């Protein structure tokens, strides 16, 4: 193999590091996006038997958003293997215990169950907050677009900006706000 | 009831007798051990013997030589072609035999023809390549010529022209040196029989076409592409600037860097590598390919030049870096 062919191969199979901000994102929808990058499905060279998957770094997994009353209704099942060893943990309980668990399980479920799945999962890094190790951040060269726009909360906008914003109407002076 | 009792065993018998058809190819159990035993006995007797085709009873050398020329669509002088196929080892062997039998028939070997052929092939290939690769340096062309005229390539061509069984040599099967030598001798014979232009086309069609689908840059290893590139560009009065334009997985074992080479803020080439230094070197290689007109997307080499091209006197590096 000539030098040119060798570096061509090296560049083709280079692992890109992607970052994904989980803030206000549905973990079950995001899982399908993350999975695509983890397995290398977004590449034209993809084949189930070639190792072309990328690395994904998820940040802010503490701030994920579940739909409706999923926090209270969704249960994660675990069985220890002993009689009476079944437990059903609610999503909010699990999230309190480990804020990376829900996104991890969602991605794990999104990937088809085969021998490769656990190795693919090794390439997923999840951090509950924005603080991630310096070495990891240096590797990152691409950002995966968020599925939903993160809205700005009114109480996060400074008061002066709120006051300056043009109003449709003023409340009458004798109006009592609840 | 009696009727049923009569039929039931009959039914079972039918079911028992009819075999379930299996879709397997049935190779008997004795086949493999027998073949192994035969192989073992053959090995004990000194390996498989291949009888040369020219020892067969109906072998007709004259007809074979005539057909050889006709297959290639060339006109050969019979005697010259026979001489081209006669190896030195065969001549020596025959002389020994003749001494024993006390007769004397003069046999000529192909040494002279091979020398003539070799010289013609080398000169022609060199001139041809200089013409079809006008920007490629002379050193590079010489290197390609060396590769095209080495023993390996020529013996490959010779073997596939069907010379293996026609060659008159002491040993069989003949080795690569004799195959290559015979090919050179055939070219020499053609040179004597049909003239230079006809021979040139023969060499073009069988030797130079070996470059089809090959990367010509691979025939010429460049040790230090960066200094070569800067040297070439200095003559042109241009300075070159390497820039790191991309990296992936910096802190990992699989790090990949991309370096671009810029002239006047315009990128001329880029290269990849596991370190920035390698990437820079590869970028220089890419730039050199561009200068030499041998990029990956170059037009295919022209294999249809008629006649013998004239040697080009003013062959220098020509710069087209933009």
| CATH superfamily grouping of chain A | Ribosomal protein L13
The helix fraction of chain A, in percent, is 25-40%
The amount of beta strand of chain B, in percent, is 5-15%
Number of helices of chain B: 12
CATH topology of chain A: Ribosomal Protein L13p, Chain: A
Predict the CATH topology of the largest domain in chain B. Ribonuclease iii, N-terminal Endonuclease Domain, Chain A
| Termini gap of chain B | 102 Å
Give a verbal description of the structure:
The complex is a heterodimer of chains A (178) and B (322). Chain A is of the alpha/beta class. Chain A has one domain: Alpha-Beta Complex (Ribosomal Protein L13p, Chain: A), CATH 3.90.1180. In chain A, 34% of the residues lie in helices and 14% in strands. Chain A is built from eight helices and six strands. Chain A has helices at residues 3-12, 27-39, 70-73, 91-97, 101-110, 117-121, 134-139, 159-164; strands spanning 17-21, 55-59, 75-79, 86-90, 124-126, 142-143. Chain A has a four-stranded parallel beta sheet, with helices on one face. In chain A, helix 2 (27-39) crosses helix 5. The longest helix of chain B is centred in the middle third of the chain and has 22 residues, at 111-132. Chain B folds into two domains: 60-213, Ribonuclease iii, N-terminal Endonuclease Domain, Chain A; 218-292, Double Stranded RNA Binding Domain (2-Layer Sandwich), CATH 3.30.160. In chain B, strands 1-2-3 form a three-stranded antiparallel beta sheet. Chain B has helices at 2-17, 31-44, 61-71, 78-84, 88-101, 111-132, 138-148, 151-160, 176-194, 196-206, 225-236, 276-292, and strands at residues 241-248, 256-263, 266-273. In chain B, a hairpin with a 2-residue loop joins strand 2 and strand 3 (266-273). The N and C termini of chain B lie far apart (102 Å). In chain B, helix 11 (225-236) packs across helix 12. By secondary structure, chain B is mainly alpha-helical. The interface between A and B is medium-sized, with 16 and 22 residues.
